[in-house]
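Backbone-to-sequence.
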């Protein structure tokens, strides 16, 4: 049985699951779907066509699903989809997609979005990511799994960030960051592998293979795309293949200083 405060405003048509807790002065739109065991704290706003999975905790004053901050938006049918077991902290702002970007903003499961995080339209986020306070993602940004973004870091539109990558706090990222890598600075550049993150989920032999590949790619002085194709054809490590495939498919380029 759900626990809904008497002052909450829930429009007709909203779907509320089992064991959902909704606090005082929460506003929920008619197109909202909320999964089981989710908690929505006081003064949060759930707007538009928003689907929220199970076991999420949306903290007070979060604004979820309000129209995209895009001057081209003209009332199209757009959507925000949120997975399971996410923690979405105070004063976060999550926008749905736009017609030009596929119409969907999508957040995976087990993510932590700290206070004042903003996710722009058409953003795609994987699972087990952490975005620290004040991180801001512009439209069309894509994050893999296990990505960490430090506080007060803006990410330029259309940037892709690979699995297990980390972006240091107070950076400004304008290019793609390959999986397993660490970047920081304004403008952010690669500083090495995210070894702390890798040790939490990647076997030691795979980490060693990534170290070798990183040196060849970014410290050998050779043309990046050429060495990436060479490594891709010669290396059997699945994580190294993920790394070089990301590089060969990058559209915004990789931010590194050639030796």
């Amino acid at each position: 049985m759900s626990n809904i405060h008497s002052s909450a405003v829930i429009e007709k048509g909203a779907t509320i699951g089992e064991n959902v807790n909704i606090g005082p002065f929460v506003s929920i739109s008619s197109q909202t779907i909320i999964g089981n065991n989710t908690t929505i704290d006081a003064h949060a706003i759930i707007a538009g066509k928003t689907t929220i999975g199970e076991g999420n905790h949306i903290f007070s004053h979060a604004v979820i699903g309000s129209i995209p901050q895009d001057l081209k938006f003209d009332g199209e049918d757009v959507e925000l989809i949120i997975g399971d077991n996410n923690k979405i902290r105070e004063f976060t702002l999550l926008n749905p997609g736009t017609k030009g970007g596929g119409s969907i903003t999508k957040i995976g499961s087990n993510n932590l979005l700290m206070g004042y995080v903003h996710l722009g339209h058409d953003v795609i986020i994987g699972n087990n990511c952490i975005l620290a306070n004040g991180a801001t993602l512009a439209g069309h940004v894509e994050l893999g799994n296990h990505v960490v973004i430090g506080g007060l870091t803006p990410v330029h539109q259309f940037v892709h960030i690979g699995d297990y990558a980390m972006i240091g706090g107070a950076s400004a990222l304008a290019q793609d960051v390959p999986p397993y890598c660490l970047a920081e600075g304004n403008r952010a550049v690669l500083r090495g592998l995210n070894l702390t993150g890798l040790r939490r989920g990647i076997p030691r032999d795979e980490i060693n293979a990534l170290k070798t590949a990183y040196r060849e790619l970014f410290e050998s002085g050779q043309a990046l795309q050429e060495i990436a194709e060479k490594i891709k054809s010669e290396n059997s490590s699945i994580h190294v293949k993920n790394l070089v495939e990301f590089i060969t498919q990058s559209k915004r380029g990789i931010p590194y200083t050639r030796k």
